[in-house]
């Protein structure tokens, strides 16, 4: 299930580095985190949806790799992003 256009644009505007930024690591992680939370709630209702579970695990792995890359590049940006998204605690 894709993100609604307005929600996607809102996430991009909140996490972009400059006016035309739509693909930075922060934006990608924010979009993935929102899709992960939607899919997690879907899987709580539909326990036997195994193909969606596999997609969820792939998204979590991709987000983990992106966060690892961001942490290597800039520890400050990494810390700010995980604090803003509340994905680690």
Structural class: mainly alpha
CATH hierarchy: architecture: Orthogonal Bundle
CATH fold group = Helix Hairpins
Low-confidence stretches: none
Order of helices and strands, N to C?
A: HHHH
- Gyration radius from CA atoms, angstroms: 14 Å
Strand content is under 5%
- Structure annotation, total helices: 4
Can you tell me the number of structural domains?
1
What's the CATH first level? Mainly Alpha
3D shape: globular
Mean pLDDT: 94
Distance between the termini: 27 Å
Oligomer: single chain
Protein architecture, described:
By secondary structure, the protein is mostly helical. The protein has a single domain, classed as Orthogonal Bundle (Helix Hairpins), CATH 1.10.287. The chain contains four helices and no strands. Helix 1 crosses helix 2 and helix 3 packs antiparallel against helix 4. The mean pLDDT is 94.
């Amino acid at each position: 299930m894709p993100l609604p256009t307005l929600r996607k644009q809102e996430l991009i505007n909140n996490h972009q580095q400059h006016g035309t930024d739509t693909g930075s690591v922060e934006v990608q992680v924010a979009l993935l985190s929102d899709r992960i939370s939607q899919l997690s709630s879907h899987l709580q209702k539909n326990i036997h949806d195994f193909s969606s579970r596999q997609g969820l695990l792939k998204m979590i792995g991709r987000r983990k790799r992106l966060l690892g890359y961001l942490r290597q590049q800039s520890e400050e940006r990494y810390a700010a992003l995980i604090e803003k998204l509340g994905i680690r605690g």
